[in-house]
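dumping this here before i forget
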Amino acid sequence: MNLPLNPSSRLQRFVGLRKIAPFVHLVAVLSLVTGCKQQERHSPDVWAMVNGTEIKRDEVEKYYRSQVNPEGQEPSQEEALSLKLNVIEQLVNNEILLERAKKLNLEASDGEVEDKFTISDQEVTDFYNANHNQFNVAEPQFRISQIVITPRRDPQIRNRKNDDATNEAEAERKAKMLMDKLNSGADFAQLAMDYSEDPNTAATGGDLGYIPESALNQSDPILKHTVLSLKPGQVSQPIVLKDSIRILKLVAREAAGLRGVNDPQVRQTIRDTLRNRKEQLLRNAYLAVARDEAHVTNFLAQQVVEAAGKLPDAAKSTLPPVPALKPTVPSAPVNTQ
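structure:
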């Protein structure tokens, strides 16, 4: 059993499109169509225009497909069209912001963003007092990183060196090579990004985030034993499982209990939360101003309105077919502190 992963989504800007109510679609459609006395001339594969920049059907369809589970029930034509209209709205907004930033030569660094959104100590304290239950850790937690090696070729490998063991002998040699590098002082996260064969964690240096002790109880007993035997900063010896070889690093261990407002990690978490809120507020206001100055034409929305209740051909979408689906006790850990 694999250790649980923190959830992530690659296309987060489009998450939640299904939850938007139908009347929002109608308002968006009418607002885009009203005032256009005559349609602009365009090719059939252009579904929207932003200040002369085309948004084409292929791009919309790509993001639409990312929102539909190919193994689940296919959306109705009305649901599919509503999703596509929302995708267009997001692409329009992104294009407006990109054009606006380019026009103003805006390219803020992380430091500039932090300067723009200064968070006071009082704001941190107020947030903590209102949300202190969020910082109560119910059980011990372990922050773990991993390097995964599999004895088979995997087309999904995304490590920086595209390194992939294809059999057991190669996997064992790779594990030994990595341990030699770690024993020589190499950085664990950099090695994970270069060599780990786990597509979910390689890009983040093998970071699995914080895992509660109860989740460890559901993992392979060898993995649990290894994690509990490590001290923060230590790296395990290679762990041979049925389907992989794993090298684990215990980054940090947190005891159960309420974290105080002066805890550095608590304060940083609060600052990040407050900064993200302010950034989102400014983005929304900035987008509203930029949208007022932009020239947007949504050709797909025009087709829906002109169809007067009948679905245009653009509502039809063919989803891609679903492809057919064709242990050792670790020795002493390595201390990398």
